[in-house]
């Protein structure tokens, strides 16, 4: 629900940023206000924050449950796959038996924040019945 902070702006890209900010897609809304029935697809982009914020988010869990039930398209990219982890209920993950890929353990281990990460996507997928590649 926070606005994106853009860094490294200069004269050549400032016009693009200003035009983008005027579009509705540049203004995020909180997940608790999302009506999943209004959307035909869900994209969870690559984001380091997904490992900390989305992997246990109750609002995202409800949105994903609706998308799974209605068989709507879901695309999670890179670390955004951690958003799918919120769908564990009574020890069963909604995406078990799915084939997924995301940032690998080797790549995450090179990150200085690795020791403090609350979840490792590759391990979570494997430990919860998904197929990781």
Overview of this structure, please?
This protein has 133 residues and is of the alpha/beta class. It contains 5 helices and 6 strands. It has a two-stranded parallel sheet. Strands 3-4 form a two-stranded antiparallel ribbon. A hairpin with a 2-residue loop joins strand 3 and strand 4. The longest helix has 12 residues.
Give the SSE layout.
Layout: H1 11-21, E1 41-44, H2 50-53, H3 58-69, E2 73-76, E3 88-89, E4 92-93, E5 99-100, H4 105-109, H5 121-127, E6 131-132
Parallel strand pairs: 1-2, 5-6
Antiparallel strand pairs: 3-4
- Going by helix content, strand content and strand pairing, the class is alpha/beta
Mean model confidence by pLDDT: 90
H/E element order: HEHHEEEEHHE
Proportion of residues in helical segments: 25-40%
Main sheet? Answer: 2 strands, parallel
Shape: globular
How many helices does DSSP assign? 5
Low-confidence stretches: none
The end-to-end distance, rounded to whole angstroms, is 31 Å
Strand order of the largest sheet: 1-2
DSSP strand count: 6
How big is the Rg? 16 Å
| Strand coverage percent | 5-15%
Protein name: Glutamine amidotransferase-like class 1 domain-containing protein 1
Keywords: Endosome, Secreted, Signal
Subcellular location: Early endosome; Secreted
Organism: Mya arenaria
């Amino acid at each position: 629900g926070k606005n994106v902070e853009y860094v490294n702006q200069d004269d050549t890209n400032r016009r693009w940023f200003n035009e983008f900010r005027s579009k509705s897609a540049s203004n995020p809304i909180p997940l608790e206000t999302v009506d999943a029935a209004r959307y035909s697809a869900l994209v969870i982009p690559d984001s380091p924050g997904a490992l900390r914020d989305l992997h246990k988010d109750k609002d995202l869990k409800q949105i994903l449950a609706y998308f799974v039930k209605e068989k709507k398209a879901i695309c999670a990219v890179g670390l955004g796959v951690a958003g799918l982890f919120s769908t564990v209920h009574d020890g069963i993950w909604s995406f078990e038996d799915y084939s997924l890929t995301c940032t690998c353990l080797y790549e995450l281990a090179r990150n200085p924040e690795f020791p403090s990460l609350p979840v490792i996507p590759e391990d979570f997928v494997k430990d919860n019945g998904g197929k990781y590649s």
